[in-house]
Amino acid sequence: MRISLRFHPGAPASFYCRCHSVPVSTARQRQFFADQGYLPFGRIYAEQDVERLRKAVAEVRTAAIDAGAAVAPVERSNVAVSSNLLNEPGKTTLSVRNLFRVNDVLRRHAFHAAIAEVATELLATDEVRLLMDQLIVKEPEISGTVGWHQDFAFWALHPPVQVSCWLALDHVTKPSGAMQFVPGSHRLGEFARVLSESGRKSRADSRPVIPRDPAAEGYETVAVELAPGECIFHHCLTWHATEPNNTACSRRALVTRFMARGTVLNVEPAAWDEDFPVVWPQP
Length: 283
Hints:
Oligomer: single chain
Low-confidence stretches: 1-21, 69-76
Structural class: alpha+beta
Number of domains: 1
CATH architecture: Sandwich
Number of strands: 14
Shape: globular
CATH topology: Jelly Rolls
Number of helices: 4
Order of helices and strands: EHEHEEHHEEEEEEEEEE
Helix content: 10-25%
Distance between the termini: 50 Å
CATH class: Mainly Beta
C-alpha cells in the first residue's frame, strides 16, 4: 500500500533561541518517531533564510564539482566533495559532503540549535555529534531512483543510534522525488548494504536484504511532501527511498546526520573485510 503524507505535528520559530528548559519536540512527536521511525517536523526556516541557504549551496556545489577528482583523498575532510549516488548510465543524483567545513552559512545550519536539540531528544541522549552534512540534488530528467535502503548499512558505526534531518530547499512532492518510508521498519533490525541499481548486496554480508519493492510485499510505504524550509527526521534503520524527479524544477535537500553519545566505530570482524582486508595471519 502506498500513501502520500502531509503531516506537520509542530514547528519552532525560524530564528531559534534556547532560553528555556522545555523540550523542543513534543511528546506526541517523540512517540510518533519511536513508533514510525521518521518524523515530519515542520518549518525550520522562513523563506528568506531558505534563499540564503540556496545561494550558499550554489556556491559550494560549483566549487565541489570544479574540484572533482583533483582533490587528494587526504584533503577531502577539509573540502566539499561531490559524487553521484547512482550507478545507472545517464542518471545522476548529486551528493556534496563536508559543506559545513567550507561555508559559514551552511556551517550555521549544520549546528542549528533547534535541529540538533530535536535530534538529541529523538535519540533520547544528552549529546549528539555531527556525523556528516550533505547536499542531495535531483535535477529534472536526469535524476534516477535511489533504491530502498537503511543509512546504517553504509556507516562503520555501532550501535544504530543515529538520526538524519532532511531539509527541503524546494517544494518536494512525490513526482519530484519525495522521501518515501516504510513506517516502523526501524524496528525490523539491521539489513545489508545494497547497490541502488540492482538491490543486491554490495559486499559479503550475513544480514538480509531489504525488498526492492516493499509495497509489493505488503509493506505500507509513505511519501512525505515538504515545502521549502520544512524538514523531516528519520532513524538510521528506517527503510527509505526516492524516485526520479519527473518535474521541471530542481529538488534540493540539505541532510544533517547526527550520532548519539556512545557511538563507536564498528569492530565487527567481517563486516568491512572488503574495505580493510586482513593481511596477517595468512592461511
